[in-house]
Task: structure prediction
Amino acid sequence: MAEILVLVEHTGEDVKKVTGELLTLARKFGEPAAVWAGPGSAGGQARLAEFGAVKVYVADGPEFDDYVVAPKAELLAALVAAASPAAVLVPSTAEGREIGGRLAIKTGSGVLTDAVAVEEGLLAEQSNFGGAIIVKSRVRTGAPIIAIRPNSGPAEPAPGAAEIVPFSVEISDAAKTAHITERVVAERGERPELTEASIVVSGGRGVGSGENFPLIEKLADSLGAAVGASRAATDAGWYPHQFQVGQTGKTVSPQLYLAVGISGAIQHRAGMQTAKTIMVINKDAEAPIFELADFGVVGDLFNVVPQLTEEIQKRSDG
Ligand SMILES: Cc1cc2nc3c(=O)[nH]c(=O)nc-3n(C[C@H](O)[C@H](O)[C@H](O)COP(=O)(O)OP(=O)(O)OC[C@H]3O[C@@H](n4cnc5c(N)ncnc54)[C@H](O)[C@@H]3O)c2cc1C
Result:
């Protein structure tokens, strides 16, 4: 069976959730072979084995940590030449998409980004214009490179050997032109990362002010969710821009998305409409967001949200 290369997203030894999702998907199409760039593979190996990686190609040179995406694209290109995989899967994050694009140039293969599903025959599905158009595409040249959105599918455990295969590659000088001078880890509370969270609770203009945003945070915390916001809320300075969901913000595909006081503009939908279940709280029954909702409450959020939070807390305490 041909290999499916999966680029591992990790911070040090910590393997990101999306990697489990990609390995799960890769198992459908061939033998999942993880690709680990940079140090930390020994600590991450067990996690890769848990999701069925048959082998782990490890290139642990310092250049993968010292320079931005180019060395990873060169590593993958060398692996494509050496292993002739049936496909290469990368996370559709800002970094993953750039690596995918660079890899496509190097290998002469086609690349598809922002896929939300991959079907039989490596047919990738993309959801465009706020979900109004579903596009299905297949790469016709070379080993397909597909960038998959985090949270698009489950991460299902299945044991794999995750045999470490050291792989050395000479990184070109051209790939070392953009040097990383400093890494500052953003302060994060207990909440999950927005793009990785299984549940996201977002607040919009209806929340009324930054002082009211703790209402949204409390609801999120009762569910173990991440907090998001519409652009109206971030532009008003009520919540930091890094939490904006939408076309010009983050794209999320959680199992559950709660939109609170958000009207459902197409630019907002573009970032959340692939959520598996969508719940809406809005006082206007005509708000377009209800078109997407699996479950909606027409009501004043200042009345509904505290009651909902209290009820969820009671259940989780009991
Ligand atoms: C190029 C471009 C890019 C953009 N990118 C993004 C993006 O990435 N993300 C994004 O979100 N937007 C984006 N926008 C902006 C987008 O068009 C909308 O303006 C924005 O999403 C509106 O945010 P909102 O739904 O919070 O506010 P509104 O549209 O004002 O909706 C507020 C909602 O709250 C409800 N409400 C009010 N009070 C209450 C209450 N007490 N209880 C319950 N409900 C209440 C109202 O009924 C209304 O439906 C972009 C726009 C452009 C032009």
Notes: The mean pLDDT is 94. The two ends are 49 Å apart (CA to CA). The chain is about 30% helix and 25% strand.
